[in-house]
Amino acid sequence: MKRIGAVAFIALAAAVAVAPSSVRADDLSIIINRADTFTEVYVSARAETLFATLDADTGVVPMQNGLVEYASFASGTWDIGDTLLKSATLLIDQQVAQLEAMSFMLHPADDKLRFETPLDGMISIGVCNALTSDNSYRLSDLTGYAGYYIDRDSTGGTMNLTLANPLPHDLSLTIFDYGAHTHTHKAMKFMQGTQLRITLDPPQQTRRIRDILPFTLVLMIGAMLLHILLTADRAQKHRAVKDTGLLSR
Amino acid sequence: MLKSQSRRTFIATSAAASLVPALPMMAQAQEPVIVEMLTKHPTEARLRNVFFPRVVSVEAGQTVLFKATDRSHNSASIDGMIPESAEEWDGRINEDVEVTFDVPGIYGYKCTPHAATGMVALIVVEGEGKLDNLEAAQGVRQRGRAKAVFEEIWEEAAEMGLLEPSSA
């Protein structure tokens, strides 16, 4: 029985090892929400990385004495968001899609918000308690979050995102892509000096199945092994009882 | 976009919520109708930054109290979405604001920092000519998610029968 337990444990451990794991983004994270009639894109990175990667001028962030002036966010921050992404081109099914900023927000980098789902994105861009709290942060201490709205659906469309200028530094990129009641995530690395070009096929159920296929196969193999071992064990016990002669008349 | 089931639930909840303040209103006409400014919808947790209820019907002369239940919100009329002769309003962040609606019509309003994330709502003031500015209000260009939210709001208002000519 010990042997059976060990085999089951190995099968389970192997299954866990190949299961899709959550990816930690060090540099730039993007969440895509492909809703029925519209599309949303959320981006997040350390504020300085965000502005540098997107080749945007940090001067658009209201500051006083080197500190971010949160009070001015009360009138809305979509102009910052628009400026931030002006060098980006997004195509959906080869057609240019207009990205319209919903909001931009800065939160302390040492208290990084969860940023993996469209709801995380919406929460992170909300201009919230920062407006009234006694905040005194430099841009270098903050993580930037921006949300964009596209007035068309992309549930079945391939998206192409391109930045106009070469990257000023190496970049790790994580993309969480939601649509058609499923999602995918990708982690990519880009070298300094290259141009960021991403192609994203829409998440589909088949992709989801493909993602979990190795996990399912290992489980099935584990179950088969378990079945074989149990059968062998039962046969061995049967033989042992038979050898005692108790079963013969 | 909300799924049809949860959307129906949402509309039903909103419709019921919009009637709740209206009931005591019948008994005590001076009581303001309360619209809460919330960071999280009370029943649909995935909806953030909302006015609740988001569609409200009041009589001409009645007051609405926009209650700053959660922080960082305000209530402000949207340019082009109120009747011509009505007064604009622009509440301060984190503060309650009372607005009395004397002119029948359609009033679209927003939370200034959260409008583009969809924090917009509608008040219909009953009375003669209440639909005079409907077309103009529906024609106002919305930014970001406010577009999709206003599409739902117009549908919700129609389902509540608010976009029918006033019987008064």
Characterise this structure.
- The complex is a heterodimer of chains A (about 250) and B (about 170).
- In chain A, α1 packs antiparallel against α5.
- Chain A is about 30% helix and about 30% strand.
- Chain A is elongated.
- Chain A has two domains: about 1-15 and about 215-245; about 20-210, no CATH class.
- In chain A, the strands form three sheets. A six-stranded mixed β-sheet of chain A has the order 7-8-2-1-10-11, sandwiched between helices. In chain A, strands 6-5-9-12 form a four-stranded antiparallel β-sheet, with no helix packed on it. A two-stranded antiparallel sheet of chain A has the order 3-4.
- Chain A has helices at about 1-20, 45-55, 80-85, 120-125, 205-245, and strands at about 30-35, 40-45, 65, 65-70, 90, 95, 100-110, 140-150, 160-165, 170-180, 180-190, 195-200.
- Chain A is an alpha+beta fold.
- Chain A starts with a helix and ends in a 6-residue tail after the last helix.
- Chain B is an alpha/beta fold and about 170 residues long.
- Chain B has one domain (about 5-160): Cupredoxins -  blue copper proteins (Immunoglobulin-like, Sandwich).
- Helix content of chain B is about 25%, strand content about 25%.
- Chain B has four helices and eight strands, in the order ααββββββββαα.
- Chain B has helices at about 5-20, 20-25, 135-140, 145-160; strands spanning about 35-40, 50, 55-60, 60-65, 75, 95-100, 105-110, 120-125.
- Chain B has a four-stranded mixed β-sheet with strand order 2-1-4-6. In chain B, strands 3-8-7-5 form a four-stranded mixed β-sheet.
- The model of chain B is unreliable at about 1-10 and about 20-30 (pLDDT under 50).
- Chains A and B meet through β7, α4 and β8 of A and α4 of B.
